[in-house]
Amino acid sequence: MNRGNTVADDNRSDALRAAAQKRIELKQAISEVENATASASAQPAWRPRLAAALGDLNQALLRHVEEVEGSDGLLAELTREAPRLSRRIEEVRDEHPKLCHQATKVMESLDQDVTVGAIRIDVLDLLSAIARHRQAGADLVYEGYEVDLGGG
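The structure corresponding to this sequence follows.
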């Protein structure tokens, strides 16, 4: 593998390239949720806008999971390339269902009699969990390949 490079380099694997693309999509979805959450909640469209943004985030998260957990995905490749990281790879993999469940619960709360403040707290908790997951993934990739996925 390419040592000391960014994922933008031409010599990266298909799994790294695909993971980087899903990372960008996930970051865009996170930004939309942040914007929707921070907008004025007194607007009649606040909940529907947030629901749409959370739906997009949930789909981006599911695509990320599908991509990196596939037989040709990043986690399988990392396991082959850096078996010493197997425990950490499993920890990252184990976070996926928890994050998906958390995203679903936040989306469901929009249809319930939950205060705006409580919804915002739940959204921020979700975004924080995803941020920690993304950081753990980036650290794992760097440790396995010495390649920086970047902030996208």
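Residues 5-148 form a domain with the Four Helix Bundle (Hemerythrin (Met), subunit A) fold (CATH 1.20.120).
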